[in-house]
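Lab meeting, item 3. Inverse folding demo.
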C-alpha cells in the first residue's frame, strides 16, 4: 500500500469504480449485450499463460472498468509488494517474517537448505518406492499415513488426489487430520503395522489433533512391534520444531524441515509435500514445483493488465467492494479436484479473514470472501439452483481441462465440458419467462473460466500458485497481512479448560450457562 493510502477506499480509482459499478446493477443491464457491442470481447478479456487460459469475459465490466481496477492496483502498491515478497522482505509484519514459499520452487537461486531437503526427500522417496526401506519385520512399506491438519493436510491431500493418475499404485496414501478418534481408528483398522509408514506433518509440532493422533499411532505400532527401535522404521516428521520431534522419539535422520518463512497454507511445496512425492514420485513432484515456478515468473514479470493473479484478485475485490459478494464458488469440472475448494478455503479464508490492516487499524471495507464449492457436474444437482435463481450474488470460478486423463473417454469429457460452459452461459444470459416468474432465470451473474490443457503435475502447480498469488494481491489491496492467523488461537486456548471440565475434574471454571449445560449433558449421556 502506498504510504499515502491507509485504505483502498481513499483512492480515486475506488471512488470511480463505486460509481461505475452502478451501471451494471441497473434493471436494463444485460451482460450478454457486452458481447454484441464488442465483437472482440473474448479476445480482450482472456489471458493465456502456457497451458492455462483465463476467460474473464463474463464479468460485469468493460475495458474502462478493467482500467480503473488496474489503477487501483497501482495506487495500492501491488508491483512493489510483489517485489517485496520475492525479495524475501519481512512482509508478514505481525510475526516479523518473510513469506517465501516461492523460494521453495525456484531452481535458479535456491536456498541451499531447500535444495538439500529436496535431495533428502528424493533419497527417501526412492528408497520407499523401490522397497529398499523396510519395516521392523523386513517387509516393504505399502501404506503411508499422513498425520497433519490444515496446511499440513489439505494441500498434500488435494494434490495426491488430483494427481492419482500419476501414482504407480504401489503405495496407498491415507490422510488423517481430525482428533475425532474414528478418523484414525477407521484408518488403522485396515492397516498392517509391519508395512505402514507414518508421517507426522506439523510445522509447530504442538497442534493438538496431530500430536494426539501421533501418540495413538505410536502406541498402535509399538503394541505390535514390541520394540521402540521400530519407531525409526515407521515414523518420519516434517516440522520446524526439531526438539519436540526428537522428544517424541523421531530419529533425527528422519526429520525434514519446514521453515518459519513458509506459512502452513503455503507449505505443500516443502517437505510437507512428502506424501505427494511418495505417491507420484520425485520427478513428478519436481514437475509440480516447476509449474508453480512458471506461474511465479508470470506473476513477477507480467504487466498488471496481463497478469492472471492480479486480474483474478481485482475482480474479487470489485465484487466484494461494490456488489456485496460475500462468497465465491469454486467449481472444478474434474472429480479429481474435488478437494480443491476445501484447500482454497484455508488458503483464502485463513489469509484474508482479517479485520485490521497491517498497521493494526480497523479496515475501512469488507475483506475476505467465503470460499466454497465442489466438483462439477455434481454442483449442478446441489447448489446451482441458488446460483441461478437465488437472491445471493455469488461469482463463480469454473475450472476445466480440455483433455481427460481417462484413456478413450473423450465422449464423457465432452459432456463434462459442455456442462461447464453451459452453466457459465446460463448464469450470464439467464432466460426470460413472462407469466411464469418461478421459471424466470435473471442471468447477469458473473463467472471466470480457467481452461487448462490437461490435469498433470506441472499444470496443477501453476494453478495452485495462481490462487496463492491471487490471495496475496487481494491482501495488498486491502492492506492486510495474508500470512498470519492469530484468530485461531483463542479457540485452542479455551478448549483446554473445556477439556478439563469434560474430563470430570472438579474444575471451577466459570463458564457461561450454555457451555456448562452442554458439558453437563455430555456427562449425563455418557453415564447412560
Ligand atoms: O489453523 C491454524 C494452523 O496453524 C494452520 O495455519 C496450520 O496449517 C495448521 O494449524 C497446522 O499447524 P501445524 O502444521 O503447526 O500442525
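The presenter then showed the designed sequence:
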Amino acid at each position: 500500500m502506498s504510504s499515502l493510502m491507509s485504505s483502498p477506499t481513499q483512492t480515486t480509482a475506488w471512488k470511480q469504480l463505486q460509481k461505475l459499478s452502478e451501471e451494471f446493477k441497473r434493471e436494463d443491464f444485460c451482460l450478454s449485450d457486452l458481447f454484441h457491442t464488442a465483437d472482440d470481447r473474448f479476445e480482450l478479456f482472456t489471458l493465456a499463460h502456457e497451458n492455462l487460459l483465463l476467460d474473464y469475459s463474463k464479468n460485469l465490466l468493460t475495458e474502462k472498468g478493467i482500467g480503473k481496477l488496474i489503477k487501483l492496483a497501482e495506487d495500492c502498491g501491488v508491483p512493489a509488494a510483489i517485489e517485496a515478497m520475492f525479495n524475501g522482505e519481512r512482509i508478514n509484519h505481525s510475526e516479523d517474517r518473510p513469506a517465501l514459499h516461492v523460494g521453495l520452487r525456484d531452481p535458479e537461486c535456491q536456498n541451499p537448505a531447500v535444495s538439500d531437503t529436496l535431495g533428502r526427500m528424493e533419497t527417501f522417496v526412492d528408497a520407499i518406492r523401490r522397497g529398499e526401506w523396510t519395516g521392523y519385520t523386513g517387509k516393504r512399506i505399502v501404506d503411508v499415513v499422513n498425520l497433519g491438519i490444515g496446511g499440513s493436510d489439505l494441500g498434500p491431500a488435494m494434490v495426491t488426489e488430483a494427481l492419482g493418475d500419476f501414482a504407480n499404485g504401489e503405495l496407498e496414501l491415507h490422510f488423517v487430520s481430525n482428533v475425532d478418534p474414528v478418523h484414525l481408528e477407521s484408518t488403522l483398522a485396515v492397516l498392517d503395522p509391519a508395512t505402514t509408514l507414518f508421517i507426522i506433518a506439523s510445522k509447530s509440532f504442538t497442534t493438538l489433533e496431530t500430536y494426539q493422533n501421533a501418540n495413538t499411532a505410536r502406541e498402535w505400532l509399538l503394541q505390535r512391534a514390541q520394540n521402540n527401535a521400530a519407531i525409526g522404521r515407521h515414523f518420519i516428521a516434517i516440522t520446524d520444531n526439531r526438539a519436540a520431534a526428537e522428544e517424541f522419539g523421531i530419529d533425527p535422520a528422519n526429520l525434514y524441515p519446514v521453515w518459519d518463512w513458509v506459512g502452513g497454507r503455503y507449505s505443500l511445496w516443502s517437505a510437507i509435500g512428502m506424501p505427494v512425492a511418495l505417491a507420484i514420485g520425485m520427478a513428478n513432484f519436481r514437475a509440480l514445483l516447476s509449474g508453480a515456478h512458471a506461474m511465479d515468473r508470470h506473476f513477477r514479470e507480467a504487466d498488471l493488465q496481463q497478469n492472471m493473479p492480479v486480474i483474478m484478485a481485482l475482480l474479487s475485490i470489485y465484487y466484494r467492494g461494490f456488489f456485496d459478494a460475500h462468497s465465491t464458488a469454486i467449481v472444478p469440472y474434474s472429480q479429481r479436484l474435488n478437494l480443491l475448494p476445501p484447500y482454497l478455503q484455508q488458503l483464502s479464508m485463513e489469509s484474508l479473514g482479517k479485520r485490521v490492516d497491517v498497521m493494526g487499524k480497523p479496515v475501512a471495507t469488507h475483506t475476505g470472501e467465503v470460499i466454497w464449492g465442489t466438483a462439477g457436474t455434481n454442483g449442478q444437482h446441489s447448489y446451482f439452483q441458488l446460483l441461478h435463481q437465488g437472491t445471493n450474488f455469488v461469482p463463480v470460478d469454473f475450472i476445466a481441462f480440455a483433455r481427460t486423463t481417462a484413456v478413450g473417454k473423450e465422449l464423457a469429457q465432452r459432456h463434462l465440458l459442455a456442462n461447464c460452459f453451459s452453466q457459465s452461459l446460463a448464469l450470464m444470459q439467464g432466460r426470460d419467462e413472462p407469466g411464469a416468474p418461478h421459471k424466470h432465470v435473471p442471468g447477469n451473474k458473473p463467472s471466470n473460466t480457467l481452461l487448462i490443457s490437461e490435469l498433470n503435475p506441472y499444470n496443477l502447480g501453476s494453478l495452485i500458485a495462481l490462487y496463492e498469488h491471487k490471495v496475496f494481491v487481494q491482501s495488498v489491496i486491502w492492506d492486510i497481512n495474508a500470512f498470519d492467523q492469530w484468530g485461531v488461537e483463542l479457540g485452542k486456548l479455551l478448549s483446554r479448560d473445556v477439556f478439563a471440565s469434560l474430563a470430570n475434574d472438579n474444575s471451577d471454571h466459570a463458564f457461561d450457562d450454555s457451555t456448562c449445560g452442554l458439558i453437563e449433558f455430555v456427562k449425563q449421556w455418557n453415564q447412560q
